[in-house]
Amino acid sequence: MESLSPFVFWSQTKQALLLKVDLKDAKGAIADFSPVAVNFSANGHGARGMNAYKFQLHFYSLIDDENATFVVSDNKIELQIRKLEPEWWPRLVATPQKPHWLKIDFDRWRTEDDAELEEKPRDVRQDYQQEYADLQKRELGYIKEKTKKVYMIFYNLAMFIGYLYIVTVMGVLYYRDGAESIAKTYANVGNAFKFVQLLQYLEVMHPLFGYTKGSPLVPFFQVSGRNFVLFLMIEMEPRMYTKPVVFYVFIIWSLVELVRYPFYLSQLLGREVGLLTWLRYTIWIPLYPMGILCEGIIVLRNIPYIEETKRFCVDMPNRWNITFDMVLFLKIYLLLLILPGSYLVMSHMAKLRAKKLGRGRGKRRQHLHAD
């Protein structure tokens, strides 16, 4: 079945691009930005009536994909994109041949006076990626993939299988034994959970070696926060093993990952799955608050145990001449987790959701102005 593309009208300033997608009453809009391209899909009323529309554009130069976003209104969708380097582009797309559905938005068009828009030297393999891949497949019988990409596919697949195993075991035992299985959760899947959680520290290394974008600090704090609860608050206190909250936090953590890793796989394989993208940037809305609540309960339940055992506490006198009160640390940790911690995590995910799924139906017409 031939895929339908909507009319797209584009304009630029020296710093930014604006793409206006001619779709009315659009639903389920998804825009996946990368430094060199955008993949867009939505259902709406376009040139071929009410249908599913999609398009892909490989840009002439690099964009700031981290801050690219889009706004859905009743009669159009606007993609707002910042150029990575402020400069005037001679065209929008990498190739000299533009798609027939791509038009200039003359109402917003701005040009630089006396600008000489000369083309830079270009890599033909990048400009014609699909054609190069088809040629490679015909010549070799397969498409050569980069080692990094192959590794990331296997890593995400392995992590998905790990969390799927945990949820499957918990589900089967609950179906067989009912509520009695809840107290045995840690005994049944604790070792498996510790294994996959330790493996997640590889995600701290990925941005360091250029396998993924972003800062290593974000995955470091996310993984370390979970492992603090798992190893110090549960593993080190046997009386926590049978608590129902362990069952609930394992379910919540696993459900998040059972969506996250398949989404990453789909991106690596170049397959945009609308439902999976929506789940990736929506399922956190109920699960993150519940996860923070469960983690807080686990920390709170540990306070009387640590007061009793003095575990992790350092009292005077000692050879280092220092003191450390683990109970006070946990109380401060709870305050940081509930107030600034939850706000930072939720606002970060809300920003990502707005970037991928749009900021809703804007009623004001937004313009780009030349400097």
From TrEMBL:
Superkingdom classification of source: Eukaryota
Catalysed reactions listed for this entry: a very-long-chain (3R)-3-hydroxyacyl-CoA = a very-long-chain (2E)-enoyl-CoA + H2O
GO biological processes: fatty acid elongation; sphingolipid biosynthetic process; very long-chain fatty acid biosynthetic process
Location(s) in or outside the cell: Endoplasmic reticulum membrane
GO molecular function: very-long-chain (3R)-3-hydroxyacyl-CoA dehydratase activity
Transmembrane segments: 153-175, 246-263, 283-303, 324-346
Main localization of the protein described in the UniProt heading: endoplasmic reticulum
Keywords noted in UniProt: Coiled coil, Endoplasmic reticulum, Fatty acid biosynthesis, Fatty acid metabolism, Lipid biosynthesis, Lipid metabolism, Lyase, Membrane, Transmembrane, Transmembrane helix
EC nos: 4.2.1.134
Protein family per UniProt: Belongs to the very long-chain fatty acids dehydratase HACD family.
Function statement: Catalyzes the third of the four reactions of the long-chain fatty acids elongation cycle. This endoplasmic reticulum-bound enzymatic process, allows the addition of two carbons to the chain of long- and very long-chain fatty acids/VLCFAs per cycle. This enzyme catalyzes the dehydration of the 3-hydroxyacyl-CoA intermediate into trans-2,3-enoyl-CoA, within each cycle of fatty acid elongation. Thereby, it participates to the production of VLCFAs of different chain lengths that are involved in multiple biological processes as precursors of membrane lipids and lipid mediators.
Designated name of the protein: Very-long-chain (3R)-3-hydroxyacyl-CoA dehydratase
UniProt source species: Drosophila ananassae (Fruit fly)
